[in-house]
Amino acid sequence: MSFYLFFACGLLGGILGGMGMGGGTALIPLLTLLCGVTQTAAQGVNLLSFFPMAALALSVHAKNGLLQREGLLLLVLPALAFSAAGALLAARLPALLLRRAFGAFLIALSAAKLLSARKERGGRGEKRQKTS
Question: Fewer C-beta within 10 Å: the chain N or C terminus?
Answer without folding.
Answer: C
